[in-house]
From TrEMBL:
<feature type="transmembrane region" description="Helical">
    <location>
        <begin position="371"/>
        <end position="390"/>
    </location>
</feature>
<feature type="transmembrane region" description="Helical">
    <location>
        <begin position="105"/>
        <end position="129"/>
    </location>
</feature>
<feature type="transmembrane region" description="Helical">
    <location>
        <begin position="166"/>
        <end position="184"/>
    </location>
</feature>
<keyword id="KW-1133">Transmembrane helix</keyword>
<feature type="transmembrane region" description="Helical">
    <location>
        <begin position="317"/>
        <end position="342"/>
    </location>
</feature>
<dbReference type="InterPro" id="IPR002293">
    <property type="entry name" value="AA/rel_permease1"/>
</dbReference>
<feature type="transmembrane region" description="Helical">
    <location>
        <begin position="236"/>
        <end position="254"/>
    </location>
</feature>
<feature type="transmembrane region" description="Helical">
    <location>
        <begin position="453"/>
        <end position="471"/>
    </location>
</feature>
<protein>
    <submittedName>
        <fullName>Amino acid permease</fullName>
    </submittedName>
</protein>
<feature type="transmembrane region" description="Helical">
    <location>
        <begin position="34"/>
        <end position="58"/>
    </location>
</feature>
<keyword id="KW-0813">Transport</keyword>
<dbReference type="Pfam" id="PF13520">
    <property type="entry name" value="AA_permease_2"/>
</dbReference>
<feature type="transmembrane region" description="Helical">
    <location>
        <begin position="64"/>
        <end position="84"/>
    </location>
</feature>
<feature type="transmembrane region" description="Helical">
    <location>
        <begin position="275"/>
        <end position="297"/>
    </location>
</feature>
<feature type="transmembrane region" description="Helical">
    <location>
        <begin position="196"/>
        <end position="216"/>
    </location>
</feature>
<keyword id="KW-0472">Membrane</keyword>
<feature type="transmembrane region" description="Helical">
    <location>
        <begin position="427"/>
        <end position="447"/>
    </location>
</feature>
């Protein structure tokens, strides 16, 4: 096996030159759109789905601390993203940053794991969307058969009390298809739809917090940290850590913002504002919503498809229940939209470097979007959303994301040493300590992953290495030599 090219780096000047020579992407995104793009991705399944799962199964009321732990890790990493995105206003995000600092093989492994983050993450959020659609329709008297709203092979209970095997989660498939077509149609149009949906979503979340605080029973917060039951990761401090790894999927939106750099009007200013602003706003809202949720409903009852909807039902406010269900649908929709968007930009960057087939980098001559990549991604995400439970998907997303975050922190440290003279419109304070804290925080969260998740991750990495050496290495090395 030849190792030629595995450590080869791309210089920033070459990356910028290639971006300028490639088919142009229209610069249509301002700072507000970028912040809203981040909030759209971050605030989705986390508030409306995974908060309940993490509280009921792992952390109890201390799920609040799980969000704090995950948010702290993301704050360190987010600063690193802000510097690199402002310095490299091109598509590709973590993949591109790693290529300039750690080399070709490291960049491939990051790109390979970003498939877990964006594509599998999009599937996980689509499954959550399906749960809220079912709840919303139920409020107006429309009941969907669980055979068509659950993952393939799941045993479900029908309306007559009989048991059956689910065929596929069709609503999850439908939302992925619709958003894929929207993204193929153009970035400007997608951003406008996203901005509107995020504004509506924030209004609903604030309404839930403002009303829900009056229905909190402090008895539901006790014990705040349920004792561990003898199994690592099930309550106790290890449960808080495990809960943090589960809800970590809720924070991945801030790094998908970095994929907007090539389409931002003023990326040197707008990218740091977008990344840090979206992360800060979302973290505060997460903590507030988690506190209200576990205060209204006993934590052991929150392992349901729509936990926020359950909390509103307990309040006995019919009007708010429908509003929350609609807000959740809108909120989760924006998360899927941004994840699908981010994956297509990553694949387009990898295709330009020869690590992916050329069709992933094809830009539609009229629509100015990577349309082939977007459609293929939509097909894969829809397939996973139809057949896989949200718990399995969310843990896979967590491990892939954490690996990528470790790499981007390492990339910043190494790039500071390799090319200290580069102009950096935004500089992370306290280097190397801040990125090192980001690395340690992410590694700490990875410790909380289950052994099964680690096995899946190892298998995924082995497959990625096989694909790299069989297809990508020789083509990418040849591109570097051109």
């Amino acid at each position: 096996m030849s190792l030629k090219g595995v450590g080869a780096r791309k210089r920033l000047s070459d990356i910028v030159r290639q971006a300028e020579q490639a088919a142009p992407l229209p610069k249509v995104l301002g700072p507000l759109s970028i912040v809203f793009m981040g909030i759209g991705a971050i605030i989705g399944a986390g508030i409306f789905v995974l908060t309940g799962t993490a509280a009921a199964l792992y952390a109890g009321p201390a799920v609040i601390l799980s969000f704090v732990m995950a948010g702290i890790a993301c704050a360190f990493v987010g600063l690193c993203y802000a510097e690199l995105a402002a310095m490299m206003p091109v598509s590709g995000s973590t993949y591109t940053y790693t290529y300039t600092s750690l080399g070709q093989l490291a960049a491939w492994l990051v790109g390979w794991n970003l498939i877990l983050e964006y594509s599998i993450g999009g599937a996980a959020v689509a499954v959550g969307w399906s749960g809220y659609l079912d709840g919303t329709l139920g409020l107006i008297g429309i009941d969907l058969s669980p055979r068509f709203t659950s993952s393939t092979g799941t045993i479900v209970t029908l309306a007559d009390g009989s048991r059956a095997t689910a065929i596929a989660n069709l609503p999850a498939v439908a939302i992925v298809v619709v958003l894929t077509l929207l993204l193929v149609g153009g970035t400007r149009e997608s951003a406008r739809v996203n901005n509107l949906m995020v504004a509506l979503k924030l209004s609903v979340i604030l309404a839930f917090i403002g009303v829900g605080v009056f229905y909190i029973s402090t008895a539901n917060w006790r014990p705040f940290l349920p004792p561990n039951d003898g199994t690592f990761g099930v309550f106790g401090w290890s449960g808080v850590l495990h809960g943090a790894t589960v809800v970590f999927i809720t924070y991945i939106g801030f790094d998908s913002v970095s994929n907007c750099a090539q389409e931002a009007r003023n990326p040197q200013r707008d990218m740091p504002v977008g990344i840090i602003g979206a992360l800060a706003i979302s973290t505060v809202l997460y903590i507030l919503v988690a506190g209200v949720l576990v205060g209204v409903v006993p934590y052991r009852e929150l392992d349901v498809a729509a936990p926020v909807g359950l909390a509103v039902e307990r309040m006995g406010l019919g009007w708010l229940a429908l509003l929350i269900q609609l807000g959740a649908l809108i909120g989760i929709t924006t998360a899927i939209l941004v994840l699908l968007y981010g994956q297509s930009r990553i694949f387009a960057a990898m295709a330009k470097d020869g690590l992916m087939p050329p069709l992933f980098g094809a830009i539609h001559p009229k629509l100015k979007t990577p349309w082939m990549s977007q459609i293929l991604i939509g097909v894969v995400v829809a397939t996973f959303a139809a057949a896989t439970p949200i718990e399995t998907l969310s843990e896979l997303v967590g491990v892939g994301t954490l690996f990528s975050f470790v790499m981007v922190c390492a990339a910043l440290i190494r790039l500071r040493r390799l090319e200290p003279e580069l102009h950096r419109p935004f500089r992370v304070p306290g280097v190397p300590w801040v990125p090192l804290l980001g690395i340690l925080s992410c590694l700490g969260l990875m410790v909380g992953l289950s052994p099964v998740t680690w096995m899946r991750f190892i298998v995924w990495m082995v497959i990625g290495l096989a694909v790299y050496f069989a297809y990508g290495r020789s083509r990418a090395t040849a591109r570097l030599a051109d």
